[in-house]
Each structure stands twice: as structure tokens, then as C-alpha cells.
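Retro notes, structure queue

What went well: the backlog is down to a handful. What didn't: a couple of records were mislabeled last round, so from now on we paste the full input next to the output in the thread. Example, using Lytic transglycosylase domain-containing protein from Ureibacillus galli:
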Amino acid sequence: MANKTFKKKQKKPFISPAKKLFLIILLLPVSVTVYFGVFLVWDNLNISTLFQREKAINIQDHFDIEIPEEYIPIYISAGEAYEVPWTLLAAHHRVETRFSTMEQLISPAGAEGHMQFMPCTFVGWNHPTCSGLGEGEIPSDEKTNPKIIEKYGGYGVDANGDGVADPYDIEDAIYSAANYLSKSGASDGKLREAIFNYNHSEEYVEDILYYFHLYEEVGEELVQLSFNHS
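Corresponding output:
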């Protein structure tokens, strides 16, 4: 019986190589478009943030030192809590420590922290060690104790609720300044009197008022930018 050779019949490809190449060329622009669309949506918040930051910089371009963006919500919150203009708090921060950019946050006279409180003003002048300019000899564990501060009638505030009122903590310092200025008359519109109580110098008062009015000119815009960014 003769041997028969059978050739296996090859299946034709579902899509020819030429068609594959055509589809790849056709779909490539679509893929690129989809990719960049997703990327732009994903990155939209970052683009918005950059835009808002650039706008804030433009608003402040005539300031000698820009108000750091991260401090504005703290000024606003503290100002609302004690009914004082947030721009006044910013002015004090600018004059006292150049927005906390000084190498040491302690003065030769002994004023401490971001907003330069004398220890006796922060803890309270009724403390038994307080006299003179107000440096006192207050133990370190009492300097930041809210109960001790309340006992001796100080202006220090535990703003973030961590159980410590610390003039070297930015939130505590700004809230404490707001507290002091408010009780000195700022909440009643007596800004000059309140500023003078903060530092008994007419030159100091004029410096604070200069920056206060400067910041007031663009205050609403900075508040809007701050809320949009947050």
C-alpha cells in the first residue's frame, strides 16, 4: 500500500500583519491623547496650586518680604478667634521676627519665640519671679503650662490643643499675640493703643501700622487665595 503524505492545512491569521501595522498607526495618536488627558486631570490640582501661588506672589511683589503662604490661615483663624484683623497679626510677625526668619527667636532683652513675648507677659506678671522688664526666673516646665499661665494671668495660648502653650510653636505664638492685642484694645478698634501696649515705642507703633495698612490693601485677595489653595 502506497504511503500518502498529507500536508497540514495552515490557518490564515485573523488579522494580517499589514492590518496590524495599520491599526497600531491608527491607534497611536488616540493612546497618546488619552494618556495626556488622564495626566492633565490627575495633575490638575498641582497646576491649580502653582497658579494660585504665582498669583499670590504677584500680589505681594511690592512687599519687602512676602507673607509666607503657610502662615496666612493661622493669622486668619487667630484673628477670628480674638476679633482682631489678621493683617495686624501679620504686621507684628513681620516686625518682630521677619516672619520667623531670624537666626535666633530670642532678643537680647529676653523676648522669646515667633512673636517675641517676654516670659512674664506670656506666663503672667503675677508669677512670683516677675519684675523689671519681665524676663523673670520662671522654671521651664511652668513657662508652657496652660494651667500655670491661667493661674498667673498670662496671655500664652495652647492653640493646637497639645497641652502646651509654647511661644516657639507658630500657632501658639500667633494665637497668644492675638489674645494680647485683643485684650489691649484691638478687638474694639483701638489699634494704636494695643500696638503700643505690645511694645512701648512710638516708632514701633508706626512700623506696625505701616505694614498693617500695606497688608490691608491686598488682604481680601490673599484671604481668597488662601481658601482656594486649602
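Agreed that this is the format going forward. Reviewer comment attached to the example: The chain has one domain: 66-229.
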